[in-house]
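note to self: dont lose this again. the chain is below, predicted strucutre after it. 407 aa total, dont forget to put it in the shared folder this time
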Amino acid sequence: MKKLACIFLFTILLNSCTEEKKNTLAQGVWLAELTAMDQAILPFNFKLKKTFADQYEMEIYNAEEVIIVDEIEVIKDSINIKFPVFEGYIAAKITQNTMQGEFIKESLDRIVSFKATHGVSERFRNSKPSNENISGIWETEFAIDTDDAYMAKGIFIQNGDKVTGTYRTETGDYRYLDGVVSGDSLKVSAFDGAHAFVFTAKVTDSSMNGAFYSGNHSKEVFVAKRNEAFELTSADSLTFIKEGYDKLAFSFPNAKGEMISLEDERFKNKVVVVQVMGTWCPNCLDETKYYVDYIKKNSNSDLEFIALAFEYAKTKEGAFKSINRLKDRIGVEYPIVLAQFGSSDKALAQEKLPMLNHVLSYPTSIFIDKKGTVRKIHTGFNGPATGVKFIEFQQQFDGFLKELLAE
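---
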């Protein structure tokens, strides 16, 4: 009997040690690679470490941006990585130095091949020194020769072979792009847990010709030329109240099922900022973080914010789960109501707000004065990756709100 007990105890200890070994991942820098359309590789670096609570934590790097990921579950030879705010996650099989699996966005039925290797710090394997320096402003057209063509402003800084920057469009920016110029080839990418972007191009001192991949579901060909004077259409002129309407009006439910509208006592005789957004949208997240910080620093009883969420979650419950997750993770104290679920289609969104000429972008911010009159509509958001433009936006935002509050 004692012999059987000893064998049983030894078996438990052996399995425990084996399981612990399976669960061990190398700490330090990793290189992750997603496979986009045309088998284009979308790389990003992250650092993996153990916390004092013996849990894994990840830092994802895109140029100056650092994204902290603290919802990581390891079970035997599998890992599940859930990103802050966004619904996307990575599910992979692991060894000590490798991960092999998929980046998954269930509501959109999108699955992207993923792998990661420990100990690789180079985002792109740069085989040649750069022949060109792309620092400066680039007038860019995406989706050329299609009905969906649109203009963008490339903003880049190059040091040696290393490149950082972004593309600004009239609907927002492509956030922190990070990469290299190798010979005459530009490669920059960004991954934030929601969007996976990689741009590749052939460059000269005055031109770019390339392709923009968003995950494995979208590809846009683009061309660009140097133009330091290039500017996009003003973000304050793209969206407006249509003739025949004099006010913004809506009534949408909050998480408690209460219908919220601008006629509620909370908003009467106050300056109101109405944020058209989605919890799935990185530009909306940047804007929400800015608004949360602004409210903390500029508390005013005559100022209110409210967000109208347009969610692609397939159910109302799923949409509110995403909304509550955003509020909890970012510390949003202003109301977020559900304007739409099951689709983030802008044409459908415009049907919910028929007084607008269109919903061109998530996010869009609508500024209403104390009399209930729409005074300005700002399309898109110039986030922190846009540098000087972000600083200009903050100054203009603060100045305009103070004008409205003083009236």
